[in-house]
Design brief:
The protein is 33% helix and 21% strand. It is of the alpha/beta class. The chain has one domain: Rossmann fold. An eight-stranded mixed sheet has the order 3-2-1-4-5-8-6-7. Helix 7 links the parallel strand 4 and strand 5. The chain is globular, with a radius of gyration of 18 Å. GO terms for molecular function: 3-demethylubiquinol 3-O-methyltransferase activity; metal ion binding; polyprenyldihydroxybenzoate methyltransferase activity. Belongs to the class I-like SAM-binding methyltransferase superfamily. UbiG/COQ3 family. Its main location: mitochondrion. It is an enzyme of class 2 (transferase).
Length: 291
């Protein structure tokens, strides 16, 4: 049965209310982690680093994650005012002189976290995930690269951003790649993530727009027809429109810039940036902390 667009909430705040009522399997808690999502990704843990397995699309998307972050960092002072909620103060800088720090929330098996730790300009990467089986895979894969493991640049924490992160752990880049559509309370989750972004830094992520196109591509084609994504990976009603995300971000005090980049998966070619496609399906988003 295809979804009915008219039953979906028009704003992120209303979506938050619906998600609490319809998707939570337990009483509200400080954590936005979904127990069903933890169970789902636990089953995929052993194949996380197989570039041809169930996580193949994540491996293929990883280079674009870095591309998007570079766009955010290099364009922070050159974008027109229309791309800004509020003008940045003169002292606002995208990262620190000693190197860029990353906090990868919902890091999974460490695909992005490891690649970020290998960058020459990286000072520190901390990966956080609530799924023990997946984190064991991440740590084992890190151990298979002795020089990287010995460098101390990459570490992992088990838990949710709301409950297990030290209050003083902040980073230049806080990433939530393919995470927002898997949590119970996206507004609370993003607010908790924003608290860990240093002034001048960015909260970046990727998610999926809630459209007929995304329902056909992610639910019908990817999960049912082509079987390139395990069945049950996505809940279409948890997808968030880019304009909903932008409107919500624009209301957050102390945040001044917004970026979005639509991407499309082309069979045989991988993920490609397609300008204006953020309203169709997959997209990256970024918001910059000013103070």
């Amino acid at each position: 049965m295809p979804p009915r667009l008219t039953r979906l909430p028009p704003t992120l705040a209303q979506y938050l209310h619906l998600s609490l009522r319809s998707h939570s399997t337990h009483h509200p808690s400080p954590s936005s982690v979904s127990a069903s999502e933890v169970s789902h990704f636990s089953a995929l843990a052993s194949s996380w680093w197989d570039p041809h397995g169930p996580s193949a699309l994540l491996h293929a998307m990883n280079p674009l994650r870095h591309t998007f972050i570079r766009h955010c960092l290099t364009s922070a002072t050159t974008e027109p005012a229309s791309r800004q909620f509020r003008p940045p103060p003169p002292s606002s800088t995208p990262h620190h002189k000693q190197g860029t720090t990353y906090l990868d929330i919902g890091c999974g098996g460490g695909i992005f976290a490891e690649s970020a730790a290998r960058l020459a300009g990286t000072e520190r990467v901390t990966g956080v995930d609530p799924t023990p089986d997946v984190l064991r895979v991440a740590k084992a894969h890190l151990a298979s690269d002795p020089p990287l493991a010995a460098s101390g640049k990459l570490s992992y924490l088990e838990g949710s951003v709301e409950t297990l992160l030290p209050a003083d752990l902040q980073a230049d880049i806080v990433s939530v790649f393919e995470v927002v559509e898997h949590v119970n309370r996206p507004s609370d989750f993003l607010t908790a993530c924003m608290a860990h972004v240093r002034p001048g830094g960015w909260l970046v992520g990727s998610t999926i727009a809630r459209t007929w196109t995304s329902w056909l591509t992610t639910k019908v084609m990817a999960e049912e027809v082509l079987r390139i994504v395990p069945r049950g990976t996505h809940d279409w009603e948890k997808y968030i429109q880019p304009e909903e995300m932008r409107d919500w971000a624009g209301k957050q005090e102390g945040w001044g810039e917004w970026r979005v980049m639509g991407v499309v998966y082309v069979p045989g070619m991988g993920w490609r940036e397609v300008k204006g496609s953020e309203g169709w399906g997959n997209y990256f988003f970024g918001m910059r902390r000013l103070v």
